[in-house]
Write a structure and sequence with these properties.
It is a single chain. This protein is an all-alpha fold and 444 residues long. It has one domain: MFS general substrate transporter like domains (Growth Hormone, Chain: A), CATH 1.20.1250.20. 75% of the residues lie in helices and 0% in strands. It contains 16 helices and no strands. The longest helix has 33 residues.
Length: 444
C-alpha cells in the first residue's frame, strides 16, 4: 500500500521573473533604473571635476563628507516620514529637489563657479536623496507579494549594477567633452522618474494621525537593536564599506598611477557594477542560497582581498578585474542584507528601519570616501586602499566570531514572517494595501 511519504510534494519551480510579472513593480523599477543611471553619471562628473580643478585627494574626501552629513542628520526624520505619509509623494518631492540641485551644479560648472559652492549644492542634493531613500526602500515590499520579494531584491541589485555599468561608462564619455551636460542628464533622469511614480497603479493606504513623538522617531533603532541578526549585518557592512572606499580614489589611480585618462576612469568606475551585474544574473536564475549567513561572510572577505590586490596593481586590466570582483562579491551581500532586512521588518516599521540602515550603511559609503581621501592625502593612495582591504578582513573575522547566529543562518526562503518578530506595538493601525493588477494583497 503506498504511503504519502513515498511521493513527496515537489518544491515550487523557481521563477526568475516573478517580480516583473507585477505591473506596479515594473513601472517603479523602470523609472528608478533611469534615475540611477543619471545619478551615476553625475557621480562620475563630480569626482572628475573636483580633482581636475583642485588636484588634491582631500577634495574627493570632502565630496564624501558633504554627501554623508545629510544621511546622519536626516535619516531618522526621513524614516519617520516614510512610515507616516505617502511614500510615493515623498519620493516625488525628493526627486524634484534632486532635479533642482543637478541643474544648479550644471550652471556652476558651466561658469567655473566656486568649488565651495559646489560642496554646498552637494550637501543639499544629498539631503534631497535622504528625504526619499527610506520611502523608496519601504515601498518595494508593498509592490510585490512576500514570496516574490527575494526575486525583487535580486532584480533591484541587478538593475542597480546595470546602471552602474551604463552610468559611469556614459559619464566618462560625456565628461570628456562637457561636464555640465552630465549634470543636465542627471536632472532629466530625475524628472522621468517623477512621471513614472505618478502613474504607479497602487492604492493609497491609511496613514497615522496625531502628534509626532520622540519614541516613534527612534523606534527603528530599538527594533534593529532587538533584532540582532539585522544589527550584525548592518555593523558588518558599516565597517567593510567604511574601510573599503577605494572607488573615491579612482580619479587618482586613473590619472597618476594607471594613466588611462577620463575614458579609462569611466571604465574603472564601471568595473564593480559590471561584476555585480554578472553575479546578479547568476543569482536570478539560481535557487535561493542554502547557507546565506556563511555566504555573506565569505563574500565580504572576498571584497577585502580584491581591494588589497587593486591597491598594489600597476596594470589597468588587473585593476579592472579586481574592481570587477569587488562588485561581484558585494552584490551577493547586498541581496542577502536587503532580503533579510525587509522580510524581518513589519511594514509599519520599514521606513524607520531603512533609515537606521541608511545611517550606518549609506553614510559609511561617503564617510569611507572621506577616510580614504584623508589617508591618501597624508600616506598616499596605495596605502589608503590596501589598509582598507586589510581592515575589511579583520571586520569579517570579528563578525564571524561574535555572531554565530549569522554564521549558521540558512536559506533566505526560511526567513520567518515579520509578524513573528517581537516589536513594539505601533501607536496606530496600518491597513494592508492591495496592488492594482495583482491577485491577493501585497505583503505589508
Amino acid at each position: 500500500m503506498p504511503h504519502a511519504h513515498d511521493n513527496p510534494r515537489p518544491e515550487p519551480q523557481h521563477d526568475p521573473y516573478a517580480a516583473f510579472r507585477i505591473p506596479a513593480y515594473r513601472v517603479f523599477v523602470i523609472g528608478w533604473f533611469l534615475a540611477m543611471v543619471g545619478t551615476r553619471i553625475q557621480s562620475v562628473a563630480i569626482g572628475w571635476e573636483m580633482y581636475s580643478r583642485t588636484g588634491d585627494a582631500l577634495s574627493l574626501g570632502l565630496v564624501g563628507l558633504a554627501q554623508a552629513l545629510p544621511t546622519m542628520l536626516l535619516a531618522l526624520p526621513a524614516g519617520y516620514l516614510a512610515d507616516r505619509f505617502s511614500r510615493v509623494k515623498l519620493n516625488i518631492i525628493s526627486l524634484a529637489a534632486m532635479t533642482l540641485t543637478s541643474l544648479s551644479l550644471a550652471v556652476i560648472s558651466y561658469r567655473a563657479g566656486s568649488v565651495n559652492l559646489m560642496y554646498l549644492i552637494l550637501f543639499l542634493d544629498a539631503s534631497a536623496v535622504m528625504l526619499g531613500r527610506p520611502a523608496r526602500s519601504a515601498l518595494i515590499p508593498q509592490l510585490v507579494p512576500r514570496e516574490a520579494f527575494p526575486n525583487a531584491v535580486t532584480w533591484n541589485t541587478s538593475l542597480s549594477q546595470i546602471s552602474g555599468v551604463l552610468g559611469p561608462a556614459i559619464g566618462g564619455v560625456i565628461v570628456a567633452f562637457s561636464v555640465p551636460f552630465a549634470y543636465v542628464m542627471a536632472a532629466t533622469s530625475s524628472l522621468i522618474f517623477i512621471v513614472f511614480l505618478a502613474i504607479i497603479p497602487i492604492r493609497v493606504s491609511k496613514r497615522p494621525v496625531g502628534a509626532a513623538s520622540f519614541t516613534e522617531l527612534v523606534a527603528g533603532i530599538r527594533f534593529v537593536w532587538n533584532t540582532r541578526i539585522i544589527l550584525t549585518m548592518i555593523t558588518l557592512d558599516l565597517f567593510a564599506v567604511l574601510l573599503g572606499g577605494a572607488v573615491y580614489l579612482l580619479p587618482i589611480f586613473a590619472q597618476d598611477i594607471l594613466k588611462v585618462g577620463a575614458t579609462g576612469f569611466g571604465w574603472l568606475r564601471a568595473a564593480p557594477a559590471v561584476g555585480a551585474f554578472f553575479m546578479a544574473l547568476l543569482l536570478i536564475y539560481m535557487p535561493p542560497m542554502k547557507n546565506a549567513g556563511r555566504a555573506l561572510l565569505l563574500n565580504v572577505a572576498g571584497f577585502g582581498v580584491a581591494t588589497i590586490i587593486f591597491g598594489f596593481s600597476q596594470s589597468f586590466w588587473l585593476s579592472f578585474v579586481m574592481l570587477f570582483l569587488t562588485g561581484a562579491f558585494d552584490n551577493v551581500s547586498m541581496v542577502i542584507r536587503g532580503t533579510l532586512q525587509q522580510l524581518l521588518t513589519p511594514d509599519h516599521m520599514r521606513g524607520r528601519v531603512s533609515a537606521v540602515s541608511s545611517i550606518f550603511v549609506g553614510a559609511s559609503n561617503e564617510l569611507g570616501g572621506l577616510e580614504s581621501g584623508v589617508v591618501a592625502h597624508w600616506l598616499g593612495p596605495v596605502f589608503s586602499v590596501v589598509s582598507g582591504g586589510i581592515g575589511t578582513l579583520l571586520v569579517v573575522l570579528a563578525a564571524s566570531y561574535m555572531s554565530p547566529q549569522l554564521r549558521r543562518f540558512g536559506s533566505l526562503t526560511d526567513t520567518p514572517p515579520s509578524e513573528e518578530i517581537t516589536t513594539p506595538t505601533p501607536p496606530y493601525g496600518i491597513e494592508s494595501r492591495p496592488v492594482a493588477g495583482q491577485s491577493g494583497t501585497a505583503d505589508d
